[in-house]
Each structure stands twice: as structure tokens, then as C-alpha cells.
């Protein structure tokens, strides 16, 4: 089982102390402590899970960043399905103002999401993708009435 924990320390000394724990045995396994490459941004509370069903969706979802703009949604889906398992829903986001894109990938099974986390650092297109567990469910796009 793979477990990720993200910690935000009040001061640099706490973070340095945590980094010094890398290699410490916890049960049968050594801890692997790494500095984050990105800041921990607060999540808009309206995006957080609202029900047990949405919390279960999060367990099957990964957040993927640093996606090369040349990689299509179909290529991204094929990548994850060929390595991790069946993708239930994939939302690829990005615009012309950013050099890379992000995606939320919801799998049919939670085990597939866990397997996907091992793909962090794999080069897709010309960039290494970064993966983390999703804090938010991938909600179906709402069907809004047209604005007149």
C-alpha cells in the first residue's frame, strides 16, 4: 500500500526536521520524505466532497499536473488505461495562458488510482507528469440553461 501525506509546517525548522526523517524505518518500510515542488493551495470549500459517494469518488481519482499541451485527452486516457486500469471519467483542463495542463482522472476502481500515483515522473509528450490523490470529486458537468 502506498500512502502520501502532505504537511505544511509553520516554520522552516519544522520542515527541515521532517526532511531529516527520510530513511527512518516505520514498521517494515523506510520513510521517504521529500520537499514539495509546489505550494499547498487551499481548496475552494465548494469543490470538496459533499457526501459519502463523493468521498468514494475521490478515492478513485487522481490529480495530474504538468501535462504537455501536445497530449490529447484520448492519449492521456489511453496512457492511464494501458498501465493502471479502466478510466471512468477524465477532465483535461488548460488554456493558452499556461504552458502546461492539468487533469482529474477518475478510475472505475480505487486500486487503479493507487497504481496511477506510481506514474508520477513518467514523461508523457515531452514533460514528466506529476500525480497526487485528488481532494475533490470530478463532478459531471451541469447542464445549464442557455443564457439569452
From TrEMBL:
Keyword Protease part of the UniProt annotation: no
Protein's UniProt name: RRM domain-containing protein
GO terms for MF: RNA binding
PANTHER family: POLYADENYLATE-BINDING PROTEIN-INTERACTING PROTEIN 13, SERINE/ARGININE-RICH SPLICING FACTOR
Keywords carried by this UniProt record: RNA-binding
PROSITE patterns per UniProt: RRM
RRM domain location: 60-136
InterPro entries for the chain: CID8-like_RRM2, Nucleotide-bd_a/b_plait_sf, RBD_domain_sf, RRM_dom
Superkingdom of origin organism: Eukaryota
Amino acid at each position: 500500500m502506498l500512502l502520501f501525506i502532505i504537511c505544511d509546517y509553520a516554520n522552516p525548522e519544522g520542515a527541515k526536521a521532517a526532511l531529516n526523517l527520510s530513511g527512518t524505518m516505520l514498521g517494515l518500510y523506510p520513510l521517504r520524505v521529500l520537499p514539495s515542488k509546489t505550494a499547498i493551495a487551499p481548496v475552494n470549500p465548494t469543490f470538496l466532497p459533499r457526501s459519502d459517494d463523493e468521498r468514494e469518488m475521490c478515492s478513485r481519482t487522481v490529480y495530474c499536473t504538468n501535462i504537455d499541451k501536445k497530449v490529447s485527452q484520448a492519449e492521456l486516457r489511453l496512457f492511464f488505461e494501458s498501465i493502471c486500469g479502466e478510466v471512468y471519467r477524465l477532465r483535461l483542463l488548460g488554456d493558452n495562458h499556461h504552458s502546461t495542463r492539468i487533469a482529474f482522472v477518475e478510475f472505475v476502481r480505487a486500486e487503479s488510482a493507487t497504481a496511477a500515483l506510481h506514474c508520477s515522473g513518467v514523461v508523457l509528450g515531452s514533460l514528466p507528469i506529476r500525480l497526487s490523490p485528488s481532494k475533490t470529486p470530478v463532478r459531471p458537468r451541469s447542464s445549464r440553461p442557455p443564457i439569452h
